UniProtKB/TrEMBL annotation:
It comes from the Eukaryota. It holds the Pfam family TPR_10. Transmembrane segments: none annotated. It comes from Podospora anserina (strain S / ATCC MYA-4624 / DSM 980 / FGSC 10383) (Pleurage anserina). Residues 1-32 are annotated as: Disordered. InterPro entries: NLR-like, TPR-like_helical_dom_sf. Gene3D superfamilies: Tetratricopeptide repeat domain. This is Podospora anserina S mat+ genomic DNA chromosome 3, supercontig 1. Residues 14-25 have a biased composition (Pro residues).
Amino acid sequence: MSAQNTPGRRSVSPQPPAFFSPPSDPGYVSPEPAAQEIYGDIYLPTDPADTRSVREAELRNANKWEEVRQLERQVFEEHQRTLGQENAETISAAYEIAYTANDTGHSLDCERWTGWALQVGSKFLNPKHPLILKLNRLEGEILTDKGDWEDAENILANTLVNQQDALGPNHLDTLTTERALGVVCHALKRPEEAQNRLQHRLAALSEVLGENHVLVVSAVIDLVEISTPSPDADPYGLEKTNPKVISAEVGIRNLYNKLRQSVGPTNRVTLRALRNHGKLKILLGDITEAGDLLRRAKSQTEETLGPDHPDTMAAVVAMAILYAKTGTPRPGVFPAASRPWMELYLKWLEPRKGLKVAEVQNALAMLGMSYVKDSLWLEAEMCFEKLVMAYQGTKKQGSTEAQQASMWLETCRMTTRTMGVARNRGYGGGGNGGNGGRGGGGGGDLANLLATLGLGRNR
């Protein structure tokens, strides 16, 4: 999918992908608090001189995603009709469609539009054109989503260098790529390099936007997330005495309160801080308070962004981890209490991202083992059947994980044949007892939070 410049050679451009129409989003209007210790918008216009670009950013900040999609489609179709496909304005409009698809969890649509834009754009744009580089970044994020971290790192590292040369190290596009590369470094178990990249990004954003801008606060939360363990990686509760976790909880709590007072309780960054506060409370063993925080995060995120938004599903996953703490610790296996939350998450995840994404594969494996643990063989068979299909044609084909999935699939099939039970094709609610229901501020504060984590803004 990488862009290749082919001067002197013309071919018929492929047709763009079909537009997708997810359910309508709630019409939410961002509050305008009087006091703004933390200020600014999450989404900035691509071209401040273009009224439609400004309007698109306004709609994104107001979480009116269906109107965003309608506007993007209108702009793309107009450019395609009047300027043709092989025009930078048309490719830019396709990028905006791909960007929104990625940001709202529609990874497959993002991949289709990114691939089309790169295929057409590479015919007439230089490989180092800023638009091609933004598309390359999306390409790297798609590979990250799939778990192809080495390939993603290669694309993102090259894109970052090219953007630093073409746009400058402090350009917002450059810094967006640096964040994506930091995420990949973290996935590749290189935490120090990941922290360094995110710290550099934080320092640069502070210089460009001011240290109290909401995007700078969001960058601080990025650092907290990669600098503290995920609750699901702590099945035995060993992190509750970790000084870094204790300090991070205090810092995030204070940050959440400042966000709530300044940019409002339903700002996307405020909701993200609330969710992370709940996750840190899980690590500290404060299960009751964590439950209250995460239920509030899920409810407010669902009301603000909609039930199908990725941030809502992130709260659902956090609830699954919370309920996992009520059972007997067993790494990689969710107990029955948390299973309905994982079922809900997987029903959302699979059609949007496909079976080839590592996140889907991990969810299938954990849910399958949870079913096996409770002898729910039909549901387990469905999970492992999909998991075996997911590994085919990927780098994991023939891996230990793929072999284990095949082994469990055969075990499930033999067991269900012996039992003679009719097959049920859904997650949970199955014919042999599956459970388909649900279980049960300012600059000084940011600096203090980073200091408690052993992190700083120095480059």
